[in-house]
Amino acid sequence: MKPIExxxxxxxxxxxDWDIRDFHGYSTNRGTxxxxxxxxxxxxxxxxxxxxxxxGDLMHRIHNIIDPKKIDYIVVNHVEMDHxxxxxxVIEEVRPxxxxxxxxxxxxxxxxxxxxxxxxxxxxxxxxxxxxxRTLNFMETRMLHWPDSMFTYVKEDQILISNxxxxxxxxxSERFDEEVNxxxxxxxxxxxxxNILTLYSPLxxxxxxxxxxxNLPIKMIAPDHGVIxxxxxxxxxxxxxxxxxxxxxxxxxxxxxxxxxxTEMMAKAVAxxxxxxGVNYKLLDLRFSHRSDVMTEVLEAGAVVLGxxxxxxxxxxxxxxxxxxxxxxxxxxxIGAAFGSYGWSGESxxxxxxxxxxxxxxxxxxxxxxxxxxEHEHLKECVELGHTVARSLKAMQAGKEIASVI
Length: 406
Ligand code: FEO
Description:
This protein is 36% helix and 22% strand. The chain has 406 residues and is an alpha/beta fold. Bound molecules: MU-OXO-diiron (FEO). The site of MU-OXO-diiron has 9 residues, from α2.
């Protein structure tokens, strides 16, 4: 097998996980990769490792290039187990001179692996590390994705090794951006941002600003998941700039769960109302759309209309689970409204409104409840709700201030 070279003497030595389908609640239908990088210099350096089960793949790739025992340094950009699970075995086999990590990374490594005896070197702010012909710069990127996260920049080659940031869960035989289908690539990047980074958008904004301020020339971005941005790193930076700014587009989502299809009838009528006013929509039934795919749609939607029947004085469990997931990710800058059918108590609309209030959505309608099965007149009210959402969305897109009605 030929080693995969990013630049002269800088190699990809990671692993491809074709089988993973669930990444702590995020559906990874296209698998993923755990990327690690090997730099051959006076000080031979391994940047990140892989998930424990893929340790053999990592060592095999390194063996194809050098004897792993020759590795001098290991850089741990992030302690989450998909990047450090095989670290104890690697350290055992390699016996590196130093293990570089951030201050928070040091704490996290101790709490994960309980090894005081590893040769840690905690990087200080703006520290530079010479490997011989090359220099590494480190940049702490707390909460992208954990408190310990950092980037490593290879100065002479202008390669930013960005760990979780700028990645995608995409297993492929190709390793570089221009080699894969661009629609699939950007779809997976969107899903990754929506499900992992939405909550940290203010921090993403700061990191992007810092990178711009440092004026780092970036020839390549090498994340720890998915393909390496060799041809068009600007494409993913531009997308992150848009996503972290919570820029909403002019379309709406109707997200619902239904018990006996009454709420579904209402959902379709709301959607008709949106379309009457020229707003495109997607109708997402939580029985058939995975929460992480729904969150991918939420990222750029301008309006989110939630529908749910009442069950046991509360919400249907799929909607309750989805709301917990969405509230954790804290999407912002959305128009919201709610509807639902009920039998006798009818709390669902109130609960949906509460959830949207917590997320600071601009609620444009007090909500619509229908007992048991809607009649034509009820469905007309749902269409009207769709009109109200559409008009509010268009006003928001035009830059007008809109106040919540509740
Ligand atoms: Fe890919 Fe936060 O680990």
